[in-house]
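User: Please run a holo structure prediction.
Assistant: Happy to. Please share the sequence and the ligand.
User: Here you go; the ligand is NAP.
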Amino acid sequence: MDKKFSEPMFNGQELKDKVIVVTGGGSGLGKSMSRYFLQLGARVVITSRNLEKLQKAASEMEKETGGNVLPVRCDVRNYNEVETMLAATLETFGKVDGLLNNAAGNFISPTERLSAHAFDTVIDIVLKGSKNCTLALGKHWIKTKQEKAVVLNIVTTYAFTGSAYVVPSATAKAGVLAMTRSLAVEWAKYGIRMNAIAPGPFPTKGAWDRLLPGDLKEKFDISKKVPLRRVGEHQELANLAAYLMSDFSAYVNGEVITIDGGEWLQGAGEFNMLEAIPQTMWDMLETMIRAGKDK
Ligand code: HXC
Ligand code: NAP
């Protein structure tokens, strides 16, 4: 099969001179997107709660790309830590152009089993964390009259469909989507663009350990939920993120772009279950329908 989608879409310096903060940039999808931003000439700040992990990821990505990475410990739940992270970014790179709100917390659970604190924990990382970073960097951009800046929020398709068993995450991601669309309008006058990506399943250790623990991975073949019958590859998400971070997407604002192989629509369409009907049965079904018409 032609796997063009797993190749880099841009190959030049499309993000040259940009400084981009990636929350949760030391693992999973955040790391894959950071790596590609670096390949395209950006300088990248990666943040999470675990400095050791960030330092390891930073030196690995610097070696791979020849780029410049600043690892900063920052729990996005705490506004003062976000302000400190912004100060460290400005001190090292002198400016910041983009924010990728990617950090998240999530796990499957029947909602009635959750303590109030468990529910809060996920809301705080996803919604409050994205709010904290957006507010701190937004205030900075507005105060310094920066000509242009970009915020890109990683949500999920259940931000708009909702989903059982991940209710804190669905609630928080829906809030992030509402913030995206609201600020896209309010802050456009300051040159700040605000978009979101809603990924379908892209295997990462962080997500798979918490959403498909143990043998759930084998029990539920997630690719079967996807009309294209495969999961996503990190590079194809990175391609989309790089486009939305770049000046090539200058007229895209307030948009949420789904990249899920058609997964959420497969679950939504009233008669999509007819996919299970073998081709050989359709002659018989058609005959039955046509016969019924004359009665
Ligand atoms: C019920 C749980 C629980 C579980 C934790 N808690 N795990 N309750 N079932 N499996 C409860 C704890 O008992 C505690 O409540 C509260 O949640 C906070 O737990 P801590 O472990 O103290 O929190 P913390 O150390 O801050 O860790 C946060 C975390 C953890 C969310 C619980 O999983 C984490 O660090 N996650 C970060 C990475 C991540 O989640 N990646 C996946 C993203 S995937 P009490 O009341 O006991 O104090 C994603 C997209 C999915 O978002 C879409 C796929 C298609
Ligand atoms: P991941 O590797 O677990 O990424 C989550 C990141 O968030 C980790 O690097 C984690 O780092 C960081 N983080 C968690 N709590 C934090 C906090 N309080 N402050 C700062 N950083 C924190 O999982 P992933 O799959 O790559 O997820 C990345 C993003 O994609 C998330 O927004 C997720 O919702 C979204 N997404 C993923 C999928 C998928 O299929 N994988 C699908 C749809 C959406 P530390 O633990 O070191 O803090």
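The chain has a mean pLDDT of 97.
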